[in-house]
Amino acid sequence: MDYFLLKQSGTVSIPKAPPEKASDPMEPSVRTIGQVGILDKFDYIAREHLVSDRLKHLLALYLPCQVWRPCVFIDPPRKDLRTFWFLPALSYLPKQVETASNGMPAAVWVEEQDFAKRAPGILHVRSPKGTVYYLVHLCVAESILRRGICGLELERLSSELSHPVVQL
Amino acid sequence: MTDEYMRYANQKKNQKLFELEDLYQNQFDTYAPVFQKHFQSVCETIRSMQKNEQLGELSYLEYTLLYTNLIHAEHTAQVRAYDNRWYFDPHQRIIGSFDLSPFFFKYKELWADLMSCRKRFAGAVTAQETLAYLLSCAASFFQYITAAFRFSILPCIKAEPFLSLRRADAFEINVGEYMAFTEAIYKENRMRSSQKTLDWFALRLEFAYAYESFCGLDLTNADLSEIDLRYADLSHAALEGTDFQDALLYGTRFCHANLRNADFRYSQLYEADFTGADLTNANFRAAEGYRGVPDHTDWFIPGYRSICFKNADLSRADFTRTKIRDADFTGATMNGTILERRTAAHFALSDSQRRAVQIIDRS
To answer: Best of B178, B181, B182 to disrupt the A interface by mutation (most A CBs within 10 Å)?
Structure first.
């Protein structure tokens, strides 16, 4: 199946989240950063699974029912800001995910019926060590690049499982 | 990205596209066999997969430009086969890949040029911005692949191995982007009847009939004036006396159709194909169609190919006041075809055709 692993392109250091009120998890996370312009190069920040505003607008088309939480980076001396969004946790689980020796996803298999009916464009998978990864289907990957959203990397996963799922 | 760089990039893109246009118009015959050979091999693969029950009935065959390949400088189009669920087919199979590099070298030149000249702008333009711009240009270059495929595979779809493929009643070959803009270059629809089609045409829906197949239908004396049949296929159709006045007939295929007494007045006939059609007494007054790009300064689509009248019967057809130029009349019968003295020079005719036509002065 044609899925790609969403990866950060290059390195960036972002300030940690300030302590938040447990009662209001959907409040924007506001962080102060010097030279907010350095974030323009990034459409995906892996550490906290943040996506740029333009990428969020595209992904929201594939996740119409999701609630998105903003993360705003402010640069007070320059009176400038950039809005990123936390990728939401997704309930849909693929039928099978194979991981490479480093724990990263290597191949994924979505139930045939699900693919034909729901065509899951974005998958949220967790490695055995608990690390979260986001996978996007070819249609989403193509959409991203067609729109010139290049501040990320898309690593193609193997289209074949080494132990194929037997459809009953 | 600075305005100056943007201007430079747009000008370079325009230049490379016009260079490609020149190749497309003048060296098409050199490239056509490359497309044909690849298409034949794809059909062979499908036939063998169907024989081995690895692939079922085919509804869609697609040559897909993938941006996920382009960013890695892989200039290939993926060939995918789908059942009637199209993109929702969980078994969609990759049949092969088509090497675009012989046709994408102008794009590669643009890529190299913009990436290197970016340095002249002293850091004002990032590699990422240039990459985004280059990706946005790819579809324009790919349109030439679509156009070349459309015209080059025609002989292949009338022959084996294509004919023995198990195809659904509605089948199409597309060229384009994955789950985005694609163009049908060939369609089949064995479920259409003449009467239902006429009823459907009577609704004059916008964009609904373009690219569709109406092969072999009987639409004799039908009123198809002002209809949009761009790139539709009316090959072998019975169209005697049919009214196509003011119709949009860009790239429409009328191969071997009966078009006796058909009325094409004021229609747009750019790159229409009348190969082997019977156009006796047809009326082409004020019809329009020429070869090349519509605008010679800014590129926006691939230029049109010549209108093709190869081996057509144009006896007593009326070309007075026509705006048809650069058409291909190879082997056409032109007994008593009416041309106007003023525009006769626009028709490249053989000596025998020149002797057979009737040249009149505009009244």
So the answer is: B178
